[in-house]
Specification:
single chain, mainly alpha, three-stranded antiparallel β-sheet, 6 strands, globular
Amino acid sequence: MAARTTTVNTFSRFCGAPLRLSRPRIETVQRLTSLEAHRTLRLLAEHHPARMRVDVWERSVAVIALAVCTRRGLSDLHGMRLPDVDLDRVLPRARVTGEWYPLDVVSVRVLTRWLLRHQELTARHDGHGRSDRLWVTTGPGRSGAGRRVAPAGFPARIRTLEAAHRKLTTQALGVPLRIEQLCGSPGVPLPGAVPARPGRLPAGTLLTRGGWEGPRTRPPVTGRREAVTLSRPYRRWLRSEPAATSQS
């Protein structure tokens, strides 16, 4: 809304009748706890919205899975490549901006599903222009004046991922959650957390019944400019299930 307000002020000033609208105040977005984020991930991973394409749903859920496990926003996840996801290890992991994070069982299943879809989309290129980017388009691009339409399987823009995520959360949860809201509250471990073995994971990493928690020393994700309030039925559902059923 701040960007839209600036656009309106600039255009009105160009027309000779400046409106001088005040920009909205910056507010921190409401974020889910780690337990709520993992429960939401399992819900989205198991229920495909009827009005959403399967490949778009698989890609969006994979983005959410990495956000929950790494506590990184879309600006960091957008640049990931195929070598950044290592699922063949005893403890699967993902690399974001040069740092490795362990993955839980649900996230491994979601990412495996998306990697199979990724291979199907990029295999149509027959090796020409094949992308190693983790997030690729699922359909052809829009046509323009004298512009060639790009087929599916090319790197997806960040606004494409944002639009798909907003559509998924709106249809499945009834509220358009942001990626940063699913990163979990920083410094708050899941119930039943135990210290990880020394030398196996970065210092401060926790192994929990709901998944692996990243280092607690990581700074929190910067708040966005829009405040989104969770709907009452969705908040009631998050609190209805006991913590003991949060196994991945």
